[in-house]
Amino acid sequence: MTLAQSLAIGAPEIMLAAGAIVLLLIGVFRGDDSLTGLSWGAVILFALTALTVVDDAPDRLLAWNDLYVADSLSAFLKILILVGAGASALMALPYLQRVNASRFEFPVLIVLATLGMFVMVSANNLLTLYVGLELMSLSAYVLAAFHRDEQRSTEAGLKYFVLGALSSGVLLYGVSLIYGFVGSTDFTAIAAGLSAGEERNMGALFGLVFVLAGLAFKVSAVPFHMWTPDVYEGAPTPVSAFFASAPKIAAMGLLLRVALDAFQGLVADWRQIIIFMSIASMLVGAVGAIGQSNVKRLLAYSSINNVGFMLIGLAAASSAGASAVLLYLTIYLVMTVGSFLVVLALCDADGRPVETLDDLAGLARARPWLATALSIFMLSLAGLPPLFGFMAKLAVFNAAVDSGLWLLAVLGVLSSVIAAYYYLRVVKILFFDPPADVVVADGQGRAVVNNGLMLAAAIFCSPIGYLLLGPLSAATRAAAGSLF
Amino acid sequence: MLTAMILLPLALALVVLFLPGDEAQKARLAKLVGLGGTLLLFAIGLVLWAGFDSSTAAFQYIERAEPFGGLFSWHLGVDGISLVLVLLTLFLMPLCILAGWDSVKTRVPEYIAAFLAMEAMTIGVFSALDIFLFYIFFEAGLIPMYLIIGIWGGKRRIYASYKFFLYTLLGSVLMLLAMLWVAREAGTTDIPALMAHDFPLQAQTWLWLAFFASFAVKMPMWPVHTWLPDAHVEAPTAGSMILAGVLLKMGGYGFIRFSIPMFPDASVQFMWLVFGLSMVAVVYTSLVALVQTDMKKLIAYSSVAHMAFVTGGLFALNTQGVEGAMVVMLAHGVVSAALFFCVGVIYDRLHTRDIDRYGGVTTNMPRYAVFFLLFTMASVGLPGAANFVGEFLVLSGVFQAETWVAFVMTTGIILGAAYMLWLFARVMFGAQKNADAAAMPDMNAREWAIMVPLAVVALWMGIYPKPFLEPLKAPVESLMARVERANPPQTPHTKIARGDVQLASATEPALAAAGHEDILPAAAGDGDTK
Known about the structure:
The structure holds two protein chains of two kinds. By secondary structure, chain A is mostly helical. In chain A, about 75% of the residues lie in helices and about 0% in strands.
């Protein structure tokens, strides 16, 4: 593989890296006034990158001495990440201007985090994985503390950083164990090494447990979820939206690749771990959310709950399971971004963000469309037909039934009923309760872009989304196909 | 045509939400659009009925498209069983809209939109020929009903709406898993194909139970009926009408469409479970109805008792039983909706459902009394009114299957007469205890417009049920053919039918014959103990 070929295959990452530097330079010279321009610049950069990603050949290409892989799985995940990151960059604009935090670093950090995620999903080596993960995480720590004057935000940043550093340590420890016992950090070599030996490689198994723990932290699966509600609540809302969308996709995609590619020989072993994490996440996410009074915390638990459902697809360890996870990720991305768009649009008469559920009581009177949109997202997250979120759940349950994981499937559907309670509670607060009149009627008339995004997300989650099933399932099947 | 019938109310629901004008104008326009739309749909339904070929069990008006990437298809069609239920829905909907015409004053456009969405989902449930499409419609109907109870309901509406939603959802999700397995096993999501597929015997037990979990809750059967009284009491009048009239029928429809044809062996195996629950329900809920002080609650419990007749009839697994169950469903759909409306009429005037607050209403509302009496009698099962035909058929079907079950269920008719007549006596006869109750004016034109069609249909079904029975014949026959392969008849009454079936089953594959071997000893055992 020549350098030129490698450069060509790595074009999306190179574009993002160069773009981030250019944006940063523009920001430094033009100052904070350039926030709007830079955000749009980031979006254009994302769009251009998306073109180079789509341009990639669908077959598996290795580059940089097999450190890096470009296949249809990475292409699919990269598109999702770009959508999530682009939406986060755009939807933050009105918020940052409103709370006087319009600093130009915001879009730059998002681009850098996106670069990290790109490296993650294209990793074919545990060290590439680690580099990507750290690049994403370091940008994310800064983003969490973006409101540096506010205690909650800095607390969230610090908490995220300390726990994130711990999980990175755990991950690295696992990587070192695997290297020690298998002799390579390359995914293909690990897969070959594990399937070659007659005896069970206990050392590698230990390493696998640590790697899974580190990745579980990133997808906020129980029992590594503790940071999620605090960080989502403390971080500025657009940052929470970003955390809930793009990094989850990258980490889940990475988990798919590590589990199904590098450790395909140890399916029986890691499956138990994934099943446990899945059940625990579904239950903790469902039960934990019931008592929440803050919308962002509620959404944090909701994301824990949904990650549990995605892990069902991974536990199935089949092509159907992997494509179900990808379909789930796609729908989850839109539902989550949509929910946070609604939260961003909520502000009281003084323009302060409204986050308490009680303050949303009777929102359907003052802001009927906002309330309708939030209800669509909530019911879709709950996986209730006829909303599109149902398809996501159907796909993972189908994979579980296919692989004969009955207990997991039954516990999954039961926890989805528990979870339905708190999603319905939001609908009840919005529609049934007497108005609290905290959110003003004309809060955000100007935020055309946000409203447009919200409308698009709501239409996607509505039954109309089903019409996209054809192309979507073809794409997820193709992407999952590159793992098997 | 069926696609249009599903999309039209949805489109109208959107139109209603975007109406111009101020609050009062919007409300007025919304009601007109709602009424016009539902009447138009009813007219389309009549056209459907007129063009329907009753001589065949095959699905008609079939429409098929693949917009969902091959995961499942948009596949619609009706046979006689679904046709009559679709017609029932279409008939009740305009009446429901009229029923809330004056009493609903807040958020009228949303109210109408919820009903229109509900109608679309219900038509979808009864005409879906793809198992996942069915599930989507089946569950989607919960959301508008949740809103109807939660927004326009009574004092404990929030509790009732949660209970309604979560109870039904809990039952359904287990069915979803079973559906996934079924679709995987048979390699198709097509309902007609699935109805003819022979599932392995061991699996049938579990699958049957999973489907039963959903339909029993929806039906509702004792002991999972407790959501129903709460939902009925808190729902607005029109909500109760549609809930009792149409939504409960989805459970019975599910049994006919899925449980019995897909898992005939398991249906035979679980016959006694259903009989047991039905017997308890008939006696127990009738007794509970007897002591109610809330009119709506009383009628809600009577619904549970009537639905027990349906389950009993269905799982008698003979022609009379199943046909009777269908007729009970239709009759109950009309009569219970009418009874809920009767309660609504006086509730609108006095704003209480407490039986004690009324008394001697006959004096000041004589015309109302005539209709209320008619529907009371129909509900009791008086010959000449709708329920009689169905209940008689059900009882004769059950009698053939198990004499003692018929004996116990017949007590339900006596108890039914007791609680309904006593209700009527307490509300309508006796002294006029309260001045405000004595001052209630008689029915107005709108209420006449609702009562008369309901009364006409209730009598029509009782006196000349042939048009309603006709479309049922062929599909019920083919259902019986399917069942009898798993359940060779034991009683002399059905011997003739057995001969036909043996001819038919001679051509069946050996696999199905193997199924007989397994089930025969158990069936023979049953016969010996009698």
